Amino acid sequence: MEICPSNALPVRIGDKWTAWVVRLLEHGPRRFTELRKDMGRVTPKVLTETLRAMERDGMLTRTEFDEIPPRVEYELTELGHSLRALLDHTCAWTRENLPLIEAARRANDEADHARTA
Amino acid sequence: MEICPSNALPVRIGDKWTAWVVRLLEHGPRRFTELRKDMGRVTPKVLTETLRAMERDGMLTRTEFDEIPPRVEYELTELGHSLRALLDHTCAWTRENLPLIEAARRANDEADHARTA
DNA sequence: ATACACGGTTACCGCAACGAAACCGGGGGC
DNA sequence: GCCCCCGGTTTCGTTGCGGTAACCGTGTAT
């Protein structure tokens, strides 16, 4: 259920969950509970915060339907969709370079251990 | 002395100063004090942290010269240089879309005020 | 003796992000 | 009466990023 390896490293778009939301909405609107289920462990509080921030910035729209049980749909705006290309570049870069970063980390860790020992 | 408008909004590469360092190093190695002067208000502590993290991830190298006064040069590795393209995309996206984001924020703020009043 | 240059380190602190757990209201089903 | 659904809210606590201010060692210049 990984959206992109970018979650593991120093390159990030927006805050922790924004990119994930963009990915989940890129093929059409979805509702709160669907998003919640499809994202790793997000608490409703944090998901609400993320969605409200994105709405405020014009990345998505929030639509309430007068139904029982309640239904609320989140849908990317054009601005939100425009993030996809950027996200693609980021993911591509990460897929190419994450191994190098991890190798560098391992090498530096070893050097540190050698110095400490 | 702005590197890219990305500092003002929810799209960011790495932590607060990483992109800036990449920009300052893209045309060759520089030393600690030079970086410090050219970046907005960075404290030495935070700059050290940023540089150490980037070094650990293989983005740049740190070279000490045995001179008086001390000289230390930071230089991008190939991995560090590969960030430039990503940075360019991010800056381009931001330049194109920041006005839209700001417009959305203003619109939402007005709506909030109207509701509160 | 004092000050300055370089490249930092150390101790402390505030804020925002993130998370865990409980709770809410309006309805429906058993 | 009880629990479930949905879409949240509320409270509390933790973590981590970033910032402030002071200090450090080594050497050189005045």
UniProtKB/TrEMBL annotation, chains A, B:
Q: What are the alphabetically sorted keywords of the record? A: DNA-binding, Transcription, Transcription regulation
Q: Which SUPFAM superfamilies match?
A: Winged helix' DNA-binding domain
Family annotation (PROSITE patterns): HTH_HXLR
Which InterPro entries has this protein been placed in? Answer: HTH_HxlR, WH-like_DNA-bd_sf, WH_DNA-bd_sf
Recorded hits in Pfam families, A to Z, give: HxlR (PF01638)
Residue ranges of domain HTH hxlR-type in the record: 4-102
Look up the domain of life of the source.
Bacteria
| An MF annotation (GO) of this entry | DNA binding
Q: Does the keyword Oxidoreductase apply?
A: no
State the name under which the record lists this protein: Helix-turn-helix transcriptional regulator
